[in-house]
Amino acid sequence: MKRLVLASSNPGKLREIQALLPLEVVAQSALGIAEAEEPHGTFLENALAKARHASRAAGLPALADDSGLCVEALGGEPGVHSAYYAGREGNRQERDARNNEKLLKNLHEHRKAYYCCVMVLVRHADDPRPLVAEGLWHGEIARAPGGANGFGYDPLFWIPSLQKTAAQLDPAEKNRFSHRGQALAKLIACL
Questions:
Q1: pLDDT class for 169, splitting at 50, 70, 90?
Q2: Whole-model pTM above 0.85?
Q3: Is the pLDDT of residue 49 over 80?
């Protein structure tokens, strides 16, 4: 396998995965493939649905992840609903800003959180043995946003051991620690 389709149109995910994966990665949007539906209640089910959809449409192996922020004080929310926590209106930057605002409004004292990423690789759309890997990145929710790197909840995701938010890390540093970097490293080891 030398080439695969990434079952995402998220430019942040594409940058992070291309920096770590030693294969040619083509975004599904570059092939005219629409985003798959994500109706499931788990990261695994959504990632598998996205990978199968992209593989079927492209006729290539496909890599997909479903990831999100899980906040203990909110019972694991926003979880699989992270991208649309505060609604579906607007572009990605507008949704990110509303999601972060809603998260800060809903939190009080208990601020422990983690990012979860479940990554799936299918060799073909009906692959009976997809490769699956999970990464968790533990931290806290900051009281105010910090940093200009990353996307989504990164300006609020505080890493106590680094004394920085995820958005304050340079891309290579983030890839070493992040949930997506962990999951991708496990997946590459399986290959």
A1: very high
A2: yes
A3: yes
For position 115, what pLDDT does the model report?
98
Mark 49-83 as b/e (b = at least 16 C-beta within 10 Å): bbbbbbbbbbebbbbbbbbbbbbeebeebbbbebb
Domain containing 154 equals: 3-190
Answer for the pair 5, 18: CB distance below 8 angstroms, yes or no: no
pLDDT tens-digit profile of 70-82? 999 999 999 999 9
Contacts 24+ apart (CB under 8 A), 20-23: 20/175, 20/181, 20/184, 20/185, 20/188, 21/63, 21/184, 21/188, 22/188
Cβ neighbour number for residue 190 with a 10 Å cutoff: 9
pLDDT at 191 > cutoff 90: no
- CATH number, residue 56: 3.90.950.10
Q: Which residues are catalytic?
A: 66
Are 65 and 122 spatial neighbours (Cβ–Cβ below 8 Å)? no
* Residue 167 burial (CB count, 10 A): 20
User: Domain tally for the chain?
Assistant: 1
Judge contact between 116 and 68, C-beta under 8 A: yes
